[in-house]
Each structure stands twice: as structure tokens, then as C-alpha cells.
User: Fold SURF1-like protein from Sedimentitalea nanhaiensis.
Amino acid sequence: MRRILFLLIFGVAGCSVLIGLATWQMQRLDWKQGVLAQMDSRIGADPVPLPATPDPAEDKYLPVTVDGTVLPGELHVLVSIKRVGPGYRIIAPFLTDDGRRILLDRGFVRTEAADAARSTGPLTVTGNLHWPQETDSYTPVPDMAANIWFARDVPAMAAALETQPVLVVARSQTGPAVTPLPVDTAGIPNDHLQYAITWFSLALIWALMTGYFLWRTRAGDKG
Assistant:
């Protein structure tokens, strides 16, 4: 009887913990979906003029329309696009009509087009302000000789191009051979449903195994 009671307590406790973890993941899923919905709403809102002093916290993802001039000189940020392959984001200095030098993420070009000549000059850009967090301790330092960057580091890119640390990621066309890569939420991980399914599955397996051991114990006692 003691063994049966121990197995029962152990089984119920394990199932409770696993179901609790699964329920927590479902709550996290609901929270994450709300956050992503808010971000999508902000990203797709009507564009406004570029703020005088953009704030990385308050103005992240803010849709803007900016008139100005694409200046010569650009940085190449290595990326890979699903079903397309490797290439570069083209980051160019942009002089606004009110005299500010900012960064413009013009979009994507394939690897072989990295050194091709691209149009500069007057341009009206619609896009979103962004301060991406793409660097960590494992990110390689930029290869300045080859003009290859491995992440969008806004302060470092601004220093390299002598601009303000303000990045507009274009969602409108910025050149005939450049494909815009606008800001979206597709790259933000949302794996809470998969985690919840995993925990619920483990709880079911735990319950079945507990039932099996209880049956074996009772059968052994009767034998």
C-alpha cells in the first residue's frame, strides 16, 4: 500500500508540475500575440515626419516619411533571405532636407551585386525607425577592408558614415536594383505554443507511466 501511495503522490505531483508549465506557456503565448499585434499595428500605421530628436525607446518602429538625398558611400551588412540566398543590406548615408545626416537601410541586394553602382540623389523614403539589437559577444567585428558588416549596429554604423545614430528602414523603393526589407515581426520568435504542446505531451506520458506502474504494483501484490 505504501508503494502505491508513493507512486500516486509522485505521479500527481509530476503531472501537476508539467501541466503548470504548459499552462504558463499558454499564458505567455497570449501575451506574446498581444505584443506582436501591437507591434504590427504600429509598424503599419500612417507615416509621419521624422521627429526632431528620435528616441530609441519611444520611437522604435515609428513609420516615417523623409525627404532628402541619398549620399555616396554605403555599408554592406551580410544577411540571408529564405528561398533567395545570401546577400547584403545596403546602409547608406541620407541627408534630410532639413540638414540632418541619418542612416538609410535601402534594402537587399544579392552577393554578386554588392559592388554594383547604385543610384544616389534626391529621394522620398517611407519606412520605419529602428534600432535593431543584432549584436552580441559572438558577433564578428566588421571587415572594414572588404566592407562587410555582420549585424546592424546603429551607433557603429553612424560613426563609420558620420551620421546621427538614427536608422530608417525603407519600405518604399530606394533604387531599381534594391529590394526593400521592411521592418516586420516575422523574425521575432514565438514558440510558446510548441513549448505548451511539449509540456502537455510530457504530462500525458507521465500520467500513463504512473498508471502503468500502479497497475504493475497492484498486480505484483496480488500475485
In short: The chain has a mean pLDDT of 91. The chain has three helices and seven strands.
